Model the fold of this input.
Amino acid sequence: MRRALRILCIVIATLPLGGCWDRREVNELALVMAKGVDLTDDNHVRVTVQVALPSQVGGSQSGSGKGESGKSFFLVSATGRTVSEADWHIQQKLPREMYLPHLRILLIGERMAENGMEDVLDHFGRNPPNRLRTTILVAKHSDAAPLLQSTYPLESLSGEAVRKLERQLTGSNKTLMDFLIEAAGEGIDQSASAVELIPQEESERTSDEDSDIFRFSSTGIFRDLKLIGYVQGPETVALQWLNQRLRRTTLTCPVPNMHGTISVELTQARRRAYTYVHGNDVTVKYVLLGTAMLTENETGLDADNPKTVQRFQIGLNKYVESIMLKCLEQVNRDMNADPTGIGQLVYHQHPYLWPKLKPMWRQTLPHIHYIIDSRVQIIEGGKSGPPLYGKPQHGIRSSQGNTTDSLEGDTDD
Amino acid sequence: MTSKKQTISTWQLMMLLLPIILATEVLPVTDLSAKFAHQRAWLATMPATLTGVWSILVMIELAKRHPGRNLVQYSSDILGPWLGKLLGVVFMCQALIYTTKVSAEAMTFISMFALPRTPKHVVLGLFLFACAIATWAGIEVLARCAETLIPILIGFSLFVFVFLLPNMHPSFIRPILGPHWLETIFQASIVPSGWYGEFLLMGFLLPHIKDVHKVRRSILWLLVGLGAFVTLVALQSTMVAGPLIEKFIYSYYITARYISLGDFFERIDPLIISIWMYGMIIKTAVCLYVLSICVVYLCDLEDHRLVVIPVTLLTLLCAMWFFPNIAQLRNFLLYTFPFEGALVQNILPTCLLLVDKFKSAVKRPVHA
Done:
């Protein structure tokens, strides 16, 4: 019995001698931080990966001024019929194992996006190391590779910079999970933020090596996973807001009957949506809520005066309504896409009517009626009441009288 | 037959039963029921608990009528040696299905997400080796393991829930009602109903309880808790992944992987795997224990330790043989197990109870 036990112990002790199949040493990994997917001319997939150089990322402070070697990443790219095959071809060029779980950015080249994303997305939804938290972005007017190539002074990794840029501006990132949910969801089309590379203005240049800089200003609109166009500028903000993805933004808008504009910083942006269906007639009502702080007042009016604030508020809400309407008309009528998910709202609110509307939703889309009700409130007026540069007028009373006069005069118009 | 009878407390029984239902259910339940009910998967988990209530009531009633005897023993008592043994074999096969199913699930999960390059049989072998040690030690040790590990498992699941809150979109569960909502919910609830029938295993655990009469209340509360927990899990996955849940394999894991707090608290999936494995190990160990008990009483042997190793090896073989790939496994869970489970876990014990009642009703006047 003893002997048998001893033999058993030895046998068990030899089991781990085979080694651990899945050990991963950090110095045997190539951490992929960003990935670009492009379409080549012969309809293959070109994958570009941005691999972090651990020694440079860690000591970014000291290694910043070293020119070419100061780059904290390098790019490898390869083509293949599928993303996995291209990955494998990349692996052939890398001595270290490509490690995908740290992938933060998925950048889709414009041509790829226009051609349709079906062939690409399955890889990211299936291969276990890929996380759905990866941010998805579209490279506007370019392929993904040149965007990944550019360096960014603040961030050691340019992919990281792009991701932070999106979040900084709207407060959230569109992840692969969000994109796939839109793709799989009933009555909604997909959208993804677009980054473009623009030549940096001469004065902004910090050093001679980097000449281009990213800008995040538009949103790519997809229909059936094919990129069909972009919305620009304030409509991007509107789209994010209608999709409940907006956290904060800055809006600049005219004040009615005044020359000069005001700027507000908007926080806690929310929206409520209601749909009404009569036969084939669909009406959607959006109620937009939020709180705003005045950050700039070019009109010269006294922001300490409740009536002025109210007037600003009316102007702001009118402006918000106008950009919403513009955005909705642009995407629904001109592009015949539904990135704000009006179909989904109908499906949620009228589940019994949706099956009838669904087959002809594309035809219905341009004829939807919109009711937009913006109820943004300006809560804070900023650090000053009237502009600080103004000379005091004849005492408080008369200056107040002045503004109320002009206010009343305006309301009569 | 064992020289000293091992006993467990009611709390320990609850801790043993909890992973039996939860460990295997929590990962695939949402995506499997969502195949029928889509965004209403969380509603489908509620009617499913009915088979649990049924199973609990029947097993406790049987245990009360035959104190200190287990399912295999009293089936022989009730149906006579031949028919009773036959039923015992059926229950043994069911226990083998449990061990096989659970270890196959653990293996596919581990080899897909944690150790993709490790050979499958090594993963399976090591997993079953750990379970077999616990089984060897007996039910008391198992109960203590469960008492230690299960609260951690529950705590961690709640932790995942809380950290997923920022990513939840309540609108994803809409529309709650809609065309064919009732049919789809009941269709979908058939899938998780199989797991709740696994209270059948109580037939082998209740003999270790000192006072069976006080157990029913706590077990029913346990079922309520389980039902609520599984509903919460389904709600959580649905609110995070929306229309994608029905397409995921192991939606719970994928949604938990989505956790991100302030950019640095991410990628906590190794933790999820290890915590989930606690439940799996306890469940497999309990099932192995039940399987060996079945074998022991069917063959009139002395001690369950005699058969632990052969039974473990049998499970190892069956797990590789029954489920050559994950699609087979999920197909089994989706289409076969609910019906096979309803037959063996619910209908057969109920018939047993009815025969028992009938016999005692007939017998009593004779004795009187």
Notes: The domain at 247-387 of chain A is CATH 3.30.300.210 (GMP Synthetase; Chain A, domain 3). The two ends of chain A are 106 Å apart (CA to CA). The CA atoms of residues 59 and 316 of chain A lie 46 Å apart. The mean pLDDT of chain A is 81.
